[in-house]
Description:
globular
Amino acid sequence: MKIFRVLAGLSLLLTAVVAYGVTVKTDYDKDYDLGKLKTFAFKEQSRSDTDPLRTNSLLDNRIKDALRNQLQARGYQYAPDGNANFLVSYFASSMERQNIQDFGYGFPRRWRWGFGPQIWTNYYTVGSVVVDFVDPSSNELIWRGIASQTVSGVNPSDKQVNKGVDGLLKHFVKDARETKKS
């Protein structure tokens, strides 16, 4: 009985570790040379009533600071004076999810004896950040990245935001290398 509990606990822990990683997806204009981008600024954004960043300036500033710091660390210049090659805009959302595990082994499935399948339910929140890079002259979207990960507490921590932004920008640098024209 004790071994079953240990094995069930370990499998739940493994499921939790797998579920809590950062998932990054990107898309970009294949005809646009992302390699020529050197300077950036943040696009003025009007947020809808349903956007959590409208009422949560802590998270808004956390995401903006992470984007600015990590872009600068990768060699991009922050140019808020209007001389930017690309504009950065971002949005956030969160969704409640559940994970149901059925460990239907080890015990007889006889309800009258008080035994039955072991079903564990785990509730968690998935937070997502969508980052757009926009050409300032045409106002066209040139790159989009979406990072999603499980968050804990009311707001994602600095560490979680930085991890998500780092994953996004790693993909951006890879995408920029692919579109660099000779």
